[in-house]
Amino acid sequence: MFQLAGRFAPLSRTRPLAVAARALSSASAPLPLDTMVKQSSPPPGDIAAETATVAGTVAVADAAAAATTTTAAAAAAAAAAPEIAGPRATTRARKATKAFDPAVHMNNSLHVTGFRFPSSKNVRKFFEQSGIQVTGIRYFPRNSAFNINFPPGANITEMHEKINTMNFRSRPLVARFRDQSEVDVQEHKDRHQTLRAEYTESDLPAHERLNDQVTPLWRLPYDEQIQQKTDTIKTILQEARKKLVDTYSGTAPVWLDNQSDLLCKLEPTIRSPVTDGYRNKCEFSFGYSPAGKPTVGFLLGLFKEGKAFIESPQQCPHVSDSMKSVAALLQEHVDRMHAETAEMAVDPVEPAEAAAAVETTSEAAESAEPAEAAVTTERRTPFPCYDRLEQSGFWRLAMVRETVSKSMMVVVQVHPQQHSAEVLAAQADGLKAVFEEAIRQERIPKDVLLLWQQEAGLSNAFTNAPVRTLIGNAADPHIYEQLYDLKFRVSPWSFFQVNIGATELLYSYAAELAGLRDGNETVLLDVCCGTGTIGISMAKKAKRVIGIEIVPQAIEDAKFNASLNSITNCSYICNGVEKCMDQVLESLDPNEDAVAILDPPRRGVSQNVVRALRTSAHLKRLVFISCDANQAMQNFVDLCRATTNRHPGKPFRPVLARGVDLFPHARPCELVLYFERD
C-alpha cells in the first residue's frame, strides 16, 4: 500500500494509518474473500502476474485477518490473492497482466552491475568506445552499479543482450531491465540510507552538529579561540618564511637572517568587540532535514559530497536574534503550505484496502526510517522546498542582511518550475502578507526591504536575475549600513564585511600601519577597493584617495558612497591593477608620499598584480589585508623574493603582522601585514 509522491519521494509509511482509520469507520461489510481472489488472480502462465502474486501474499493474508474474523482456512485462501479488490487493486492487476515492453517500462534505461573500481567518466568512455551511445549515467555506489540511459528510439533489448556479453576490467557485466519506479525508489533509498547513517551515527543533537560545522570553535572559551587563531597565523608565517628562504639560491638578505622562525614580527590578535550574533548577513537554504521535514536554515554537510540536509539556525551562536526571527517566519510559512497540501491530499479508499493499510503499516512501523516516513506527504505540495541533489522544488534560498540601525533586507529566491505567472504572483503576494503581518506583530523589525527573485538555473546561489520589490521602496532597493560615522549603500549583491564592530578595528589598525592621520599629506591607493569602504573611511586622514577596481558596478557604488558622505578627495579607476598602477603613480608629484592598502579576495592577487606593485618604484609602503592568509601566502613570498626576470622590481620587506578576529566561533581570521622597501 505504498505510494510515490514525486519522482524521488520515499515510500510512505505514515499516510496508510490515517487513511485506514477513516475508511474503516464508515465500512459496512468486508468484501467476500472468494470475490477478492477471483478479481485479483492473473491469467495462468503470465510470469509478471505470478511474480506479483508471490509479492502480495503476506500483505493480503494480514489484510484479510484485519478486515474479517475468518477461519484459518479462509486466511490461507486469502494468501493466494495478490491484492484486495478496489479501484487501485484493479489498476495494479491490469498492469500486472500487461505484456512487458522494455521501451515503455524502462524509459530507455538498463541497470548494469559488475563494474570494478568504476567512475562515471570511465564507464561512459567504456561504452562509447564499445559503440554504445549513452545519454545519461547514474551511479549506485553501494553496489558499484549504474543506471544507463540510452537515446530515444534505441533498441533496449539489443542493448541488454550486447552488454551482457561485455567485460569491464576483466569482469563480466550484468544488465537487467528495471521499471522506472523501481529505479526511482532504489536511488532514493540508496542515497538517503547512506547519508542518514552518517547523521545517526553521532549521538550529538542536530543543532550541535551544525554548530560544529559552521562555527567549529563554538565550544571553546573566546580566549582559547583567539589563541588557536594566533597559533594558526604563526604556522602560516613560519611556512611563508620557509618558502621565501627557498627562493634565495645564494645568501639570504640580512633582515631575513635576523628574523626568528616567523616571516616577521607578530603582534597579539585583535579581539572582536562582539562574539555572539555578530553577522550582518546570512544566507539560508530551503530544504529537508535528516528526518525529511521541510526546513529553513544552513546546509548540514558538504554538498559536493552529496549531502544536502538542512538544519535550523535557531541555536547558531553567530546568527542574530532578528535573523533567527526571519528564519522562523519562513519556516512557519513553508510548514503551513505543506500542512495545507497534506490535508487536501487525503483521498477516499475502499474499506478492505484500508484494512490492509492498517496491517501493512503496523508491520512496517518497527523498521520505518524517519526520512522515508515523513517526506511523501510533505513533497506533494506544488511548492516544495528545493532539493539540491534532485534539482527540483520551489523555495530555494533566503538572504538576510541587517544593519547597525536594525533595518533589514530579505531576498527570497524561488524556482518557477512550470507555474504560470499568475500562480507565481500569488505566491509572492502570500509571502508579502506573511511579512506584513509579522511586522504588525513586531516579530521582526518594521524597516524591512523584502525582495523576490525567480531563478530557474542549476546554481545553488543567488544570481544577477532581476528582483521584484514586495515590501519597501522599489525605486531604491537598498539598505544603508553605518561604519564609523559614515553611511554606505548596500545592494543585494554587494560585498560588505559581516562584523561591523571588528571591521572598524581592522580599518583603524590598517590606517595606523599606513601612517595615516589627520592633516596627513599621504596619497592612499585603495587597491581592489570594491565599494570603497576602506578609502572612504580613511579619506579624512589622507591628502587624496585613488581607488582601483576591475568590477564596474563596484566602482559605481564606491562613487555613490563617496558622494553620500560628502567625500570630495576620492577618485576611482575601473581597470586592472596591473594595467594602470604605473600610470597612477606617474601622475603623482615626485615629492608626494604614497601608500597602498591591498584588500583582495580570498585567493589573493595574480602574479601580474604583484609584478605591478614591485615595479612601481614610487611605492615604498604596502598594507596587505588577507581574509585567507593560507591561500594568499604565495603573494607574501613573491612580494619579498629576490629580483629576477620573472620578478622584476625591488623586493619589499615584511615588517609587522597582526590578526584581527572578524569571525568569532569560526576558524577564519583576518591577517594584516605591513611591508616596506627603501
From TrEMBL:
Binding locations of S-adenosyl-L-methionine: 497, 549, 599
Active-site residues per Swiss-Prot or TrEMBL entry: 627
Membrane-spanning ranges: none
Annotated PROSITE patterns: SAM_MT_RNA_M5U
UniProt keywords, alphabetically: Methyltransferase, S-adenosyl-L-methionine, Transferase
Gene Ontology biological process terms, A to Z: methylation; RNA processing
Matching InterPro entries: SAM-dependent_MTases_sf, TRM2_met, U5_MeTrfase_fam
CDD domains the UniProt entry points to: AdoMet_MTases
Protein origin, superkingdom: Eukaryota
GO molecular function annotation: RNA binding; RNA methyltransferase activity
Similarity comment text for this entry: Belongs to the class I-like SAM-binding methyltransferase superfamily. RNA M5U methyltransferase family.
The protein, known as: tRNA (Uracil-5-)-methyltransferase
Organism, scientific name: Fonticula alba
